[in-house]
Amino acid sequence: MQATIKWVDGRLFVGESGSGHTVVMDGPPDHGGRNLGVRPMEMLLLGLGGCSSFDVVDILQKGRHEIVHCTTELTAERVDTVPAVFSKIHLHFKVTGKNLAAAAVERAVKLSAEKYCSASIMLGRAGVEITHDFEVLED
User: Which N-terminal stretch is annotated as signal sequence (predicted)?
Assistant: First the structure.
């Protein structure tokens, strides 16, 4: 896996993934940015959410569960010292489906957290407290 980050000006950067996709990152004005893009630590949080959501949807679909929506809301806390690393992250999955059993969603969330989500497992090993919960909504 590869990526390239190019500095544009101020605190504005453009990241390009090895697959050719780009994303704009910027800082807040009080740190020299112009608030034109996502903050780098927000990107990390989004990556975790994307990785976990990918797993949950994949596991449920492979189990032939009829899901129609999956939204994952993440909340994070950072320490007050430099480096301002994440100390806690909570993922709340909202999964909508037809006749979707809570046990199936619980299993998918657990498998993602404990076996498949590289981002979650890596951050957890680094000392971040990661918690999960979910709700099942009927379509």
Answer: none
